[in-house]
């Protein structure tokens, strides 16, 4: 039986995480590559198809909102893992802990003393001009002064082999269920390699999450619920999965009622008080009395109960001020201001179109830059300059001139690549990394992550809604 032939694998022009520029395997991948070389193309294909079937049987599917076909898809799991050694992970861990600590202090300050604005570290219009700033929270402090209990920052590795933070996700970071289920599938796919490589476990995530949620409540044995927009939400699999794994209640807004400023769940046995809500509903929809009056996803009075300290909401409303891509550009200054430290994990160089000099540079160099809408996500509202047409560039020039606050731009980074199974062979595909952090008394970074992979050849857009897939991320103990 013929074996896989990797001699034609191209590692030139990009930072490849399995091979160096001379096609020599990197130390953290050596054992895995030895195993891979013993496989036939047919065996590789069988393993990949078995993985696809496993995902379908587990219900690991999602909806794409702009897909008129209304078909649920799996988030394709490529069976070649991303492998990170312990030293590299420790660097990521320290950098993320530093960043999350500073961002939490920033949110606390923004809604209270606003020293960061008074000291001119960030312009006030960067904060107050966005709907994600909630004036209703001014003077409010959440339990333990923690706002961002769950964080999923997006990182990339550039052509220089260094990690950069691409953006922060503090509102309702998603994808952790795929990290957990990917691991269960890959453990069955390569059982012997786990023991040999000493891969750090991630299966205690839901236990840590439950402990984190319970620790935020004043009640001795709090009732925890996961608030979902419902079965038609693209991430419903994750909502139901996390509730089931934590032993928490899965509720929709209509399942809750507020009485005397306390929150109750409607059950067949009557009302049951709810103490902590892990909400997967955006700020604007959580309470029609305060925010979107037409929202059917939230619960009237929920925000009032939260402000009175009678229920804990996770993540805290108002954290979206940090997710704004224009605020992202100020994070190096924010870390220095609150912690007196230099940033461990750098940002990508960012041009703020609301600043005149930056705007001029972007308009003059739009064909070389990646332009992003500051309030968009999922790979939408973006122009990849080097791969765009003159017409597309002109359309974005008009948009930037009309509303400069709504856009930032960055140089195009050559994302690192990891070998992936493509049509019975192995080719390099670009990846990013979304580690997950939990914050209560301290900041815990889960030793694994969701690696998202751009499956289309040459693409750097890894979002599932844009045709991306995922990989299991193996963090080694050594």
Question: What report would you give on this structure?
Answer:
This protein is of the alpha+beta class and 478 residues long. It is 31% helix and 22% strand. The chain contains 15 helices and 21 strands. The protein has helices spanning 30-37, 41-58, 86-110, 115-118, 124-128, 176-189, 191-197, 205-215, 236-246, 302-307, 320-323, 325-328, 331-339, 356-364, 390-402; strands at 61-62, 73-74, 77-84, 150-151, 154-157, 163-167, 224-227, 249-251, 256-259, 262-267, 270-273, 276-279, 312-314, 351-352, 369-373, 382-384, 407-411, 417-422, 425-439, 443-454, 468-475. Strands 3, 4, 18, 19, 20 and 21 form a six-stranded mixed sheet that branches. A four-stranded parallel sheet has the order 8-7-12-13. The chain has a four-stranded antiparallel sheet with strand order 14-17-15-16, covered by helices on one side. Helix 2 crosses helix 6 (176-189) and helix 3 (86-110) crosses helix 13. It starts with 29 loop residues before the first helix and ends with a strand.
Task: Summarize the structure in short.
This protein is of the alpha+beta class. It has 15 helices and 21 strands.
Secondary structure elements and pairings:
Layout (H helix, E strand, L loop, with lengths): L29 H8 L3 H18 L2 E2 L10 E2 L2 E8 L1 H25 L4 H4 L5 H5 L21 E2 L2 E4 L5 E5 L8 H14 L1 H7 L7 H11 L8 E4 L8 H11 L2 E3 L4 E4 L2 E6 L2 E4 L2 E4 L22 H6 L4 E3 L5 H4 L1 H4 L2 H9 L11 E2 L3 H9 L4 E5 L8 E3 L5 H13 L4 E5 L5 E6 L2 E15 L3 E12 L13 E8 L3
Parallel strand pairs: 3-21, 7-8, 7-12, 12-13
Antiparallel strand pairs: 1-2, 4-19, 5-6, 9-10, 10-11, 14-17, 15-16, 15-17, 18-19, 19-20, 20-21
Protein name: Circularly permuted type 2 ATP-grasp protein
Organism: Winogradskyella endarachnes
